[in-house]
Every structure is written in structure tokens, then in C-alpha cells.
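Dear colleagues,

For the upcoming journal club I promised to circulate an example of a predicted protein-ligand complex. I picked one with inosinic acid because it came up in last month's discussion. The inputs are reproduced below in full, followed by the predicted structure.
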Amino acid sequence: MPNTVIVGAQWGDEGKGKIIDVLTEDADVVVRYAGGNNAGHTVFVNGQKFVLHLVPSGILHKRKLCVIGNGVVVDPVGLVEEIQGLRKLGVRVDGNLVLSETAHIVLPYHRALDAQREALKGKNKIGTTRRGIGPAYADKAARVGLRVIDLMDAARFESKLRERIRENNGLLRALGAKPVPFKHVLGQYSAAAALLKPFVANTVQLLHKALRDGKSILFEGAQGTFLDIDHGTYPYVTSSNTTAGGACTGTGVPPNCIDRVVGVMKAYTTRVGEGPLPTEDAALGDLLHSLGREFGSTTGRPRRCGWFDAVVTRQAVMINGITELAVTNLDGLDTLPVIKVCIGYRHGKTKFDHVPSDTALLAQCEPVYAEFDGWQEPIGNARRWKDLPAKARAYLTAITDLTGAKLKIVSVGPDRRQTIFV
Ligand code: IMP
């Protein structure tokens, strides 16, 4: 398999976990390159549900090397819990999971700052997952972050942690939040460090050796294009480069080693947290929620839902260099008589065929819709393109044509087997 980046073409939760799981079959190495345990990748294997937050979804396949790259921010305690949870479910993690020694770590003061800043913002909050992701990346950029390599050196970790907790507790007090207890954090993180030690390596060297040995790499994106710190609907974004460019900086693999970019998008649109969602539609949200769909896998929050937005996905194709598309959750639209697709935006007399940079303006844009006939029959058992109803095929062809990349995969249900290769 060519070295492939998998990236979300909307606001995250596009169903990347399942697509990564399906494509892992043909890859040797799977590497996460951005984000932290704000991500929640859900995969069903033989009816068993797995939710992965930091460990690459490839772990559910035998004989695949899974790497948590340098661009990820790692909560060591959360990672230990995830590893132990996987072991309990009989998933092998020893010898096939590697953690970058230069990944930054998330500390309790990051989570406390995240929560307190959100609380103080009131109605202007971002709607973060409160996992401390923003403050951890802020420390990385400010060059005061602690890395996995620091965590592995007990004396260095203790001294750096003491100094960082002193400063951050001052900040927390000033913001009206409770300080974090140094001794408790030290104990908890030292215990996690001991358990994580066997997983830690220089992943840049390891990935380049894999490339020299002719192995293929799957780069597992987290979140989605419009949550990217540079290209998303700022400030309603996460704090990393979730777009395909992040695959290089977040792993140390250069751009000329990447052969293909696969964009994952739902057959409609969702987002969790605040910020503009031009095609948001309460009735569509009620329908999807009544089917038990569209609840966040990390926070359990109901996701906001809207119609497919081709303006957004076209821009995602452009920014990420997406050549192939995977459309997921098509079966969520099974019962609808009419399905809308946004083909442009209008703001007063101005028309937009791209996502405006001004987030406040985007929030005021009115979608311009095209309408499609629904297929109104269950499609979960379709396994080949020709098994899909003609109206479903017409809908898929239209949304992918509007987006400008080739349709390669259609997902008609959560299970691995509910996948159509076009
Ligand atoms: P943070 O990443 O926790 O700082 O949250 C920032 C924004 O990104 C919020 O709107 C979150 O809901 C959103 N977000 C973060 N991670 C995910 C994800 O994995 N899926 C969907 N949205 C996410």
C-alpha cells in the first residue's frame, strides 16, 4: 500500500476510526500524528465496540506496528488506562505499540486551566473536551512543556514538574481555580512513567527505518480539517494541525514520502462544541439522535447535525490534497424522503464558493441548497456498489463530484464488513 494519510474533511467524528481500521489491513505501520485524548475513534469488530483515544486504531489488527508520534500530546495516566483496557479485552499491545519520546505530555494543570478558561468564557466558550489539549500545546509553543523523555528521567521530571506546578498554580489561583497538588501528581505520573517505559522510543528513527525496509505507513489523523488551528473556524478549533501537513511535522516523515491522502466525510455534517455550522438543522439532529446516533465518543455530548456541506468538503480536498474520499454514515439518511446538500453560501448580496476566513461572517452565512430524492430503504446490508439503491448512488456521485475527489469507500454501518469499495 502507498504511504497514506487519513484525514477528516469536516469537523471531526467523520468515522475515521473505522476507515483506518479497514485500510490497516494493507499497511505495516499506523501512526497518530496530532491531537491527544480529545479524540475518540470508535471501531466495531465482530460486534465488539472499541473506543480508542490515543492508541492508533491499527492496534486491533495483528502484526501491525502502532506509533504515537511526536505531534501528539499524551496524557500518560489516560494512556496507561487505555493500554490496560485493551489488554483486558484481549488486544495485544506489548511489542507493537510505540510512544514517541519527544511527544509532549498533558498534566493536571492543563486540564484545570482548560476547564477554568472555558467556565470563565461563559457563552463564548469553545466547547472543548476539557482534556487539557489547548494548554498543553500552548506550553509546547511557549517552550515550557514537558516531554515523554522528561517523564522517563525521574530526577529531571521531579524538578521540572515542581517548577511548572509552582507557576501554573499561581495562574490557577488568579483565575479562581483550585491549585493542583504537587506530591499527588508526582506520584501518579511516576507510576504511569514506569508502566510506559517499555513503549517509549525514538519514533523518527523507527519510522525512517520502516520506510527504508519498504514498509507502508498509514498516518492516522484526528479531529477534522475545520478544527485545524490554522485552517479551521478559529477560535472554535483544537490546538493542533489536524490537516494532512500535520502528518509530516507530527511524525518526522517528509512530504515526499507521502503518496496518497484519503479524506473521510460523513454523508451529512456534524460538529461537537461551539462555532459555526452553516447547514445545522435541528430536525435532522433530532432524527439522528432518535436513532441513537451522533453522541460524542469522548464526552458523550450530542453532536450538532446538519446537511452535507460541499463548500466545506471542497475546501478540505484543496487544503489536504485529498485524492480519494471515504463517505461514512450513509445509512443515517435511510429514512429521509428529501436530502439537502449545501452548494454555496450567501451573505446578504455576496455569494461564497469557499469558506470565508471571518468566523463571525461564516456564522451569518445562509446555505444555498440543492435537493436530492432519498432512497427510503435500509442499506446496511449492501456490500457492493451495485447493491446500493440508485438514488443512494446518485446522491454519493453528486456529493463527491461537488467535492472534487474520487469516491473510493462507502460505509453503510459501523462494522468492518459494512464497507463498500467503489
Ligand atoms: P479541544 O480539542 O478539547 O481543545 O476542543 C476544541 C474543539 O475541538 C471543541 O469544539 C471540541 O468539541 C472539538 N474536538 C476536539 N476533539 C474532537 C474530536 O475528536 N472530534 C470532534 N470534535 C473534537
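Two points we might discuss: Residues 12-13, 38-40, 126-129, 131, 133-134, 222-223, 227, 236, 238-239, 272-273 surround inosinic acid (CB under 6 Å). The domain at 104-196 is CATH 1.10.300.10 (Adenylosuccinate Synthetase, subunit A; domain 2).

See you all on Thursday,
B. R.
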